[in-house]
Design a protein that fits this description.
Layout lengths: L1 E6 L4 E2 H10 L5 E7 L4 E8 L12 E9 L2 E2 L10 E4 L4 H5 L3 H12 L4 E4 L3 H6 L7 E2 L6 H6 L3 E2 L4 E4 L2 E4 L5 H17 L2
Parallel strand pairs: 1-3, 1-7, 2-4, 3-6, 7-8, 8-12, 9-10
Antiparallel strand pairs: 4-5, 11-12
Length: 191
């Protein structure tokens, strides 16, 4: 099976991450999770609590499932991967500082391989300087991150620009994965 790289860390959003983690193998792609270290990480649930008595302006974070990173970023060879899926949550806010993750991300994007990204994952693409001049979407509170990376922000559920597939968040998982799998299968048929 061709491999898809999925960077994770403490604070990866549960639905963003696990939907792709289980969906990609259905089309015979092996998901390889990578983190700052090869170890177990905590995912989280993000949602605005539906309590009108005490409104929240931003998502509340609660514990989710655990997920093991099979490999550390420093040990990843980007040439071994057919593509990359970047989930959201808080993890991208700190794993984007990892020089190896930025190197890997840039190599995969620059090679023309499909890369899908949800939510705060745009922070990794921005940090790796991969979206300059591209049209992207993300959640509204990450619009500034996209624009600081030189991208053109478009507020819609899913956007494909070349080999990049971007979406807002887990509510757009289905369309983002459909577009990513279309690109992956097209790439597979032309090898």
């Amino acid at each position: 099976m061709e491999k898809i790289l999925m960077p994770i860390g403490d604070g990866s959003e549960t639905l963003d991450t696990f939907y792709a983690y289980y969906r990609l193998p259905e089309d015979n792609y092996q998901v390889v999770t990578a983190g700052p270290e090869a170890r177990r990480y905590h995912t989280v649930l993000h949602e605005i609590p539906p309590n009108p008595d005490v409104p929240w302006d931003i998502t509340q974070e609660r514990p989710g499932y655990h997920l093991v990173a099979q490999v550390a970023f420093r040990d990843v060879n980007p040439a071994d991967y057919a593509g990359m899926f970047i989930s959201g949550g808080r993890a991208p806010e700190y794993i984007r500082y990892d020089a190896d993750l930025r190197r890997i991300t840039k190599a995969i994007v620059d090679s023309g391989k499909p890369v899908a990204c949800l939510c705060h994952g745009i922070e990794i693409l921005t940090a790796a300087d991969c979206i300059r001049g591209k049209r992207v979407t993300t959640i509204p509170k990450c619009q500034l991150d996209a624009e600081q990376g030189g991208a053109i922000y478009v507020g819609q559920p899913c956007l494909v620009d070349g080999n990049l597939v971007t979406g807002r968040g887990y509510e757009d998982n289905t369309v983002v994965l459909r577009e990513m799998i279309t690109l992956l299968n097209h790439q597979r048929s032309h090898v």
